[in-house]
Amino acid sequence: MRAAWIVAPAVLAGALPAALLAALLAGPQQAIRQTAARPDNLRLASAIVAAHEQPGDVVFYLPATMHVLGTGYPAPFGRLRDIALNKSAIASGSLTGTEITSPARLKSRFTASSAERVWVVTGASNYKFPVPSTPMDKEKMGLVAGAGLHILHRWQAGEVMLTLYGP
Length: 167
Hints:
This protein has helices at residues 2-32, 42-52, 74-78, 89-92, 103-113, 135-146; strands spanning 58-61, 85-87, 98-99, 118-123, 150-157, 160-166. It is α+β, with helices and mostly antiparallel strands. The termini are far apart.
C-alpha cells in the first residue's frame, strides 16, 4: 500500500506536463492541417484535372520537382501521360520518380504521343507563362510551342498553376 502512495505522485508528476503539452499543441496542430494553411491546394488541383482531363492528355511538370503535386491525390494525375518520366517512383526508389535527361528522347516521345493537349504544372509564381529554369524545362515548353499549341485554360489552386494547352 505504501508503494502505491509513492508511485501515484510520480505518475501524476509525469502525466501532468504531458497533458499540458498535448493541450497546448492541439490548437496549432489542428490549424496547420486545414486546407487554407497550405500554400498549395492539392485537392483542388486534383479536382481540376479530374474534371477536365481527356484520354491522351500529356503532362509536363516545370520544374521536375513539381511531380510531388500528383502524389497527394494521384488518380487524376495518373491518367495523364507523363512522357518525361524516365523511371517510376517504385523503380527509382523515390517519391516521384525520375525524368529523362535527353532532349532528343523527350522530343521523340512527344512526337510519338501525338499529343493534342498538354497540361503544364508549375508554381503560381509562373502565372503569365511557365518560366523554364532548366534545359529540359526549356525543351518541354519548346515542344508545346513547336506543336502550335496555345493556352486553352489556366487554373490556380493555391500556389499550383495548371495550364492546359491545345490546338
